[in-house]
Specification:
Blueprint: H1 6-17, H2 34-49, E1 53-56, E2 62-65
Antiparallel strand pairs: 1-2
């Protein structure tokens, strides 16, 4: 599987932009709103599809872990799925 695919990236952007689409060129996806929960569910589905284990802590932070093939330190990256009004 290729690490970066234009088609997958375009699909991801288009899909996530539907969660909270305001119809005015932006999104409103407040933390833990129905729109944010839909985005979180999509994130989890996509991560599990590539073999990641997804856990959520008591503060609603999501962690997706993909096991490595070598005994090396972990690589960490972060982002968020919520937005400001009309973000």
């Amino acid at each position: 599987m290729a690490l970066c695919s234009y088609d997958r990236l375009e699909d991801k952007i288009k899909t996530f932009s539907t969660f909270g689409d305001t119809g005015r060129g932006g999104i409103t996806r407040f933390s833990l709103s129905p729109e944010a929960l839909a985005a979180r569910a999509e994130f989890k589905k996509r991560m599990e599809a590539i073999g990641a284990t997804v856990v959520t802590d008591d503060m609603a932070n999501m962690y997706a872990t993909i096991p490595g093939s070598e005994n090396l330190p972990a690589i960490v990256s972060g982002s968020h799925l919520d937005s400001v009004r009309q973000g």
